[in-house]
Amino acid sequence: MTKAQITPDWIAVDWGTSNLRAWAMDASGKVLAEATSQEGMGKLARDGFEPALLRLIGPWLENGPAPVFACGMVGSRQGWCEAPYRSVPCTPLDPAAQVTAPTNDPRLSVHIAPGLKQTQPADVMRGEETQIAGALSLMPGYDGILCLPGTHSKWAQISAGEVVSFQTFMTGEMFALLSEASVLRHGLQGDGWDDTAFVVAVSDALSRPERLGARLFALRAEGLIAGLAPPAARARLSGLLIGTELAAARPYWLGQRVTLVGAAKLSAAYARALKAQGIDAQHLSVTDCTLAGLSSLALQTEAAR
Amino acid sequence: MTKAQITPDWIAVDWGTSNLRAWAMDASGKVLAEATSQEGMGKLARDGFEPALLRLIGPWLENGPAPVFACGMVGSRQGWCEAPYRSVPCTPLDPAAQVTAPTNDPRLSVHIAPGLKQTQPADVMRGEETQIAGALSLMPGYDGILCLPGTHSKWAQISAGEVVSFQTFMTGEMFALLSEASVLRHGLQGDGWDDTAFVVAVSDALSRPERLGARLFALRAEGLIAGLAPPAARARLSGLLIGTELAAARPYWLGQRVTLVGAAKLSAAYARALKAQGIDAQHLSVTDCTLAGLSSLALQTEAAR
């Protein structure tokens, strides 16, 4: 089957800062095809979005138009077209709040989902609201906590189908900066992992979170004077950062039902850290949740026509 | 007076990862001339150190040789010639532990000061030991705490002329990474400063240090949804990081005599933060301390001949 023969009923798009992902979908929510490019929001000027999208999904439109439902940074002020934040407490998605992007190609109709904001403490999300909506459609009636680990990890309290409150942590970005750009990079080479070092570091950070700043340089010093191995150093850095996040997010998870929505490996690290605190977290795939969230938008938008 | 007419008795060198600084000194410890280049240790292969040094101090050797006393990363394993760490507790410098770098130019004799290491908790310093020695020669009989703010801030406990223990914090490097390379950079433009925002953030971080991870992203969110001004955001980021450092370094400063050895602006921020906790810290210039430390090495080395 060539790309040109795919005839989707609608197209799902997750358009972040670094990447653009699209899925050709049928009416039942089944994935017919998938495509990815590096043309993330961060690399595009306003007039670059439509061409970038057409480069990726053009082949799927050869047999006729299909509406596009998109989420992520594409709806930010620096994106294609701003979709103003909705304020929590609210449902994660509202079909009526979608914004239609300006397009030149008559085959294109692009609906962009707005993100969510919280006034006190100030916080924002874009893209994760769609994952949350998807998680709720995959787990109807879910009441509890969703944790979405990633570059900017989010913890969200869900009740009666609404996002009640949420909190963002820069854990993933800190790990990337410290392991790739700081003096610590010299002792963290490779992809090795030492699970014991991870669990000890999580527990250490949870019990004395204020020591994070002091513990980081020790990774370098132990590498220099005590031969700390890179797999142990990587796992300990991850454990210190995730443990510090768990310390601050304690009101979210302590005694709560927790579901992780994220990449498999990172979610497994969070699950391991939570397990050591007595929390058995479930896990949903982030792609499954994104597609379920966009599917619910596509269905409700069609139904409202 | 042209450069060629300078005839130093000895030459002081502070050779860090990013920069190389040299001072032509007379026998009384007076600075005759100063020179700086960007040829830091991080940019040089082993055989690049001698030519880099000659490019900078060559004009000072035209009337005859002068011994060079150097400190900093030049003595690390990746430097010109490794000067193995000495273990605390010990005096900050020991003339007998200096290492002589291999040289080809017969006019050059280069003495490199070793750094210090601590086994538990693991920690290392290179360059700061010379500043500490200088601070002690500028304040004879000093007993108390030295705080050396910078890329990697150090806190050192001094007693009876020895470094008893020390602790490194990556505060300066974290500020640089977060303000230049993270998502926060969008809201931190310019050099503006809001002193109230700084002091509030220090106090906030000291009272709830475990919330650092959560407070960082709020800087971005408040910029987006509440118009947080860049000067307030910069000052708050600095205050959160310094406050978190103070929280972990509390055993070092609480009820102690504290002297700051660092760049003027950064030291002023630390002094402001400590003042709010009831600590009146003195301040010494980092260059004065480096030169006083290297002077003591030069004098003792000459005396031992």
Described by the principal axes of the CA atoms, the overall outline of chain A is globular
* Helical content band of chain A: 25-40%
Q: What kind of oligomer do you see?
A: homodimer
Are there runs of chain A of 5+ residues with pLDDT below 50, and where? Answer: none
* Mean of residue pLDDT values of chain A: 95
What is the H-and-E element order of chain A?
EEEHEEEEEEHEEEHHHHHEHEH
The CATH homologous superfamily of the largest domain in chain A is called 2-keto-3-deoxy-galactonokinase, substrate binding domain
Q: Total number of β-strand segments of chain A?
A: 14
For the largest interface in this structure, which chains are involved and how many residues does each contribute? A-B, 45 and 45 residues
Taking strands numbered 1, 2, ... along the chain, how are they ordered across the largest sheet of chain A? 3-2-1-4-7-6
Terminus-to-terminus distance of chain A: 32 Å
- Give the structural class of chain A: alpha/beta
CA radius of gyration of chain A is 21 Å
Q: Please tell me the total number of domains of chain A.
A: 2
* Main beta sheet of chain A: 6 strands, mixed
Architecture blueprint of SSEs:
The structure is a homodimer.
Chain A: E1 10-15, E2 20-25, E3 31-37, H1 49-57, E4 68-71, E5 86-87, E6 99-100, E7 110-112, E8 116-118, E9 123-125, H2 128-138, E10 144-148, E11 153-159, E12 162-169, H3 171-180, H4 195-207, H5 212-226, H6 230-248, H7 250-253, E13 258-262, H8 264-275, E14 282-285, H9 286-303
Parallel strand pairs in A: 1-4, 4-7, 5-8, 10-13, 13-14
Antiparallel strand pairs in A: 1-2, 2-3, 6-7, 8-9, 10-11, 11-12
Helix pairs in contact in A: 2-9, 3-6, 4-6, 5-6, 6-8
